[in-house]
Amino acid sequence: MKLFKNISKFVVSASLATMMSATALADEWTHVVPEEVGMSSVRLAQLNKVMQGYIDSGDVAGMVILIARDGKVPYEMAFGNRDLATNSPMQTDTIFRIASQTKAIVSAGIMSLQEEGKLLTTEPLGKYLPEWMETNVAVAKENGEGYDIVPAERAITIRDLLTHTSGIPYGAWINGLTDDAWNEAGFPGWYYASSDKPIRELVREMAALPMVAQPGEKWVYGLNLDILGALIEVVSGQTLDVFLKERFFDPLGMVDTQFYLPQSEADRLATVYVRTGPGKIERASDEGIMWTQGDYLIGQGPNVTFSGGAGLLSTAHDYSVFLEMLRKGGIAMSGERLLSPMSIQLLTTDHTGDIEFRPGVGFSYGFAVALDRGIIGTPGNVGEFRWGGAYHSTYWVDPVAKLVVTSFTQFGTTAGLDDQNKLRAMIYAAITD
Fold first, then answer.
1. How far is residue 353 CA from its own chain's centroid?
2. At what angle do helices 102-115 and 316-327 cross, to 10 degrees?
3. Is 130 helix (H, G, I), strand (E, B) or coil?
4. DSSP secondary structure string, 240-285?
5. pLDDT at 24 over 60
């Protein structure tokens, strides 16, 4: 057993040393032996074995996992392949479509503007985007055939958008009630990177469509953060890509986070796969606008639509740096303050109140927030905030455990894949203090 412990510790440490030499870390994050931050090398080696098992069984093409604890990195590993057809190995700096993980960064951008006195989250959206001052809501008919359209009972606020309580759907995706209207208007789903219209113009067109709930009535996952991206452009006078680069990406050293890749970086973008059953995955389609390869991401499209709800590309490393800034109360590793402690508190505190979200979980300004671990039933602490992306990426920040976890892969559909639940259980099992 002693020999196994020594070998396990060597495997994890040697892997980290290799990755440190291969990757230039703009933020100078320190990679350490797990025991230095109260984690077990042996148990993290077991995590290696389980995650590698998904690769060996053919259930996952490749993944990257980064664990940070108290500002240091005891674990950063790449598994499998970025692309199976070319046998290209997954690297820790592989770029992924992070989809809805864009939302947290845009939410932070809104808080940054509030700190500067350029807006208030309690204000009506229509104060800045006039077409949104008065909106309409679809109400299903009692006979179940179609819907009536009624005026919204009040104006949608910026806070409604941050908490997904505005009643705005995700176009004709997971909508059901008003699919016809959103489809006809050219909003079939959640991804608009292939559009030739700037986000401000798309958001202007959305305002005329029927919403699916009254503002503040219930939690509806939708195009809220895309709208907030347009709001940022109007209030800041900058395009969303420039705004985010100046506010967060440059100060945090997030050199690989962007909306579109130059052709020269195309070979760093992970391929998207679809899992059709146990041990069965296939390359996702090149056509369509959701869960596809998206050649328009690498210089082959208009590249003018910056989607604040689902548009960013990033690496596990870059995204973890952003999360660590949140965990540290708004302070970058350089010591520069990017957000105030109060803004971080607002970003990560439940705002849903009596509005139903999930058992034991609330929703803040961009994150699900753990309120009762006994109800949730999975390892972790109260106050943890988390979310993920449509391509099966996930992350969480546990302030009590001083923990930041990012796990990236690229799937259109996963057919019941259980890797994320096992990842969570095994990470908490590796904590020894």
1. 23
2. 40
3. helix
4. HHHHHIIIIIHHHT-TT-BSS--GGGGGGBPPPEEEEETTEEEEPP
5. no
Is residue 250 within 8 A of residue 258, CB to CB? The reply is no
121 touches 114 (CB < 8 A): yes
Distance CA 104, CA 109 (A): 9
Element (H, E) at 368: strand 368-370
Q: Tell me whether residue 2 is exposed, middle or buried, using C-beta atoms within 10 angstroms of its C-beta: 0 to 12, 13 to 18, 19 or more.
A: exposed
Q: What angle do CA 409, 413, 417 make, to 5 degrees?
A: 70
Give CA–CA dist 247/116, Å, rounded.
Answer: 12
Residue pLDDT, tens place only, 353-402? 999 999 999 999 999 999 999 999 999 999 999 999 999 999 999 999 99
235 and 188 in contact (C-beta within 8 Å)? no
pTM of the model: 0.92
Distance, in Å, from the CA atom of 381 to the CA atom of 46, rounded to the nearest integer, reads 23
Question: What gap in Å lies between CA 132 and CA 330, rounded to an integer?
Answer: 31
Whole-number Cα distances in Å, 312 to 8, 102, 211: 36, 6, 26
pLDDT given for residue 290 in this prediction? 59
